[in-house]
Amino acid sequence: MHKTLAGTGLTLLLLSSTATAEGMAGISLGQALYDDEALATFAANAGGPSTSYKIFGGMAIGSHLSAHAGLFSLGKRSGKTLETYLIDTGNGTTETGTYTTSSARIEIDGFFLEGRWQWRAGSAWRPYIKLGGALVNSKTDTFIAGTGYTMVAGEVTHSSFSLVPGLGLVWESLHHWGLQLEAESYQKVKSAETSGIPDQNITNINLGIYGYW
């Protein structure tokens, strides 16, 4: 009897805690800015932004603190290098040999978990700072064809942990819907081990929409 009452009391306590907690779930799109110097060791002309996205959910832990988790992709960066070979004809002149084409692509995605601290609790506009961690999966594809090669292709994957600080702003003037603008940095992301790309910091700026209850 006492165990039943205790169990019932615990269940009611958990249900009341869940009922008073605020949850949210949403999706965002943005631009990921890779480290151009790191990408220069990967493939020529591989710099510039790529399209990123996040699918996330969260739960309020207090009036100022909340926890969030989800899946992310920092997009793909690819580059191509064309090389020519000069052939000595033996009479003091040279001619251009066959092109050799090498291309490569790096793709980064994974899972993240983070905590946020927000100001102006209860207001429509609320800025926040965050600190999180991400399990990052890096995949590198390479392809070489041309003189001296029949065709060489390969794919290498690697997983690593990245610290992810950031800041953002949410707006919740719509009924049960909100907007989120965020800037974050994935620190020291490791590439696939055999690709030779040094660790890099990748900045991600994204705009998202979410529902809350």
Describe this structure in words.
It is built from two helices and ten strands, in the order αβαβββββββββ. The protein has 213 residues and is mainly β. The strands form two sheets. It has an eight-stranded antiparallel beta barrel with strand order 1-2-3-6-7-8-9-10. It has a two-stranded antiparallel sheet with strand order 4-5. The protein is elongated, with a radius of gyration of 25 Å.
Average pLDDT, rounded to a whole number, is: 80
Helix count, per DSSP?
A: 2
N-to-C SSE string, H for helix and E for strand: HEHEEEEEEEEE
The residue fraction in helices comes out at 10-25%
Strand content: over 45%
**Classification by helices and strands:** mainly beta
Question: Uncertain regions: pLDDT < 50 for 5+ in a row?
Answer: 1-20
User: Rg from C-alpha positions?
Assistant: 25 Å
Largest sheet, if any? 8 strands, antiparallel, barrel
How many E strands? 10
Order of strands in the sheet with the most strands?
A: 1-2-3-6-7-8-9-10
N-C termini distance:
36 Å
Q: How would you describe the shape?
A: elongated
